[in-house]
Description:
Layout: H1 3-26, E1 36-37, E2 43-50, H2 62-71, E3 85-87, E4 93-97, E5 102-107, E6 112-116, E7 129-134, E8 140-144, E9 149-153, E10 159-163, E11 176-182, E12 187-192, E13 197-202, E14 207-211, E15 224-230, E16 233-238, E17 243-248, E18 253-257, E19 270-275, E20 281-285, E21 290-294, E22 300-305, E23 317-322, E24 327-332, E25 337-344
Antiparallel strand pairs: 1-2, 2-25, 3-4, 4-5, 5-6, 7-8, 8-9, 9-10, 11-12, 12-13, 13-14, 15-16, 16-17, 17-18, 19-20, 20-21, 21-22, 23-24, 24-25
Helix pairs in contact: 1-2
Amino acid sequence: xxxxxxxxxxxxxxxxxxxxxxxxxxxxxxxxxxxxxxxxxxxxxxxxxxxxxxxxxxxxxxxxxxxxxxxxxxxxxxxxxxxxxxxxxxxxxxxxxxxxxxxxxxxxxxxxxxxxxxxxxxxxxxxxxxxxxxxxxxxxxxxxxxxxxxxxxxxxxxxxxxxxxxxxxxxxxxxxxxxxxxxxxxxxxxxxxxxxxxxxxxxxxxxxxxxxxxxxxxxxxxxxxxxxxxxxxxxxxxxxxxxxxxxxxxxxxxxxxxxxxxxxxxxxxxxxxxxxxxxxxxxxxxxxxxxxxxxxxxxxxxxxxxxxxxxxxxxxxxxxxxxxxxxxxxxxxxxxxxxxxxxxxxxxxxxxx
Length: 353
């Protein structure tokens, strides 16, 4: 046996137990929850969960694993306390993480990962990223509730600018949280939670209109947070009024869903929101660890989740995103993961999708 072969053989002996242990561990993955079956052939299926950078590249070569055993695995990024999620036209999953002071970009199709951070920048440092959205060109917009600014990166993760950055380093907003972009009209909407208002801006950040005021009436807010644009509707989480309000894009009130309570159909701590292909409104309740689904008349259609650590359960869920294929991404914050579900609706002609 040559010297090189002997070295490889010895390394294999060292690494083999670790590989065997890892393989055995992988076979013990918890089972997925059962599908939720509904009327008309509709159903909700749990697909997967993820939380680590290394999950983007699940197939690693023998030599890479060998080096990891000898030198130790590299430091992978992971979700610490994720909050908001969005998907872009490339299928990438973008997650804000206030505890990690940055933004994770998981690209499972291309098997790539990127982490965006500006914590150590002397100018326009990002300190507490909250909500995230993308525009038609996949530019990434992130609100920062501590600095009072909105940070923008291009689709490749190159930093572009900060919206609301004032002289002296302060931000224009008191506490920006929710954000939505209307690319067709060139509008950016931002909720300022402490001001109880929504700011409509042009793409340069100039304020065009202020929507709402403190209160409990229609079009009034008590700590508004998440935002979502869908067709002609601007959907707002009116957190401390325990409801979700739906406005048109000019800010005119249309209807509201929700009331305070601890039963099905009631809302205690509304968080992330989304709309599926059938126009159903999904609302995360962070307190009860469930996602409730309503029609436009405010009727509860179904709900899923429940407090816990198993697949399909949540602990302090926050953000929610629904993509064009009706995949539902739920940020399971305290469990440090994102869970993916798939809603199978019914096509307009009555055939199952």
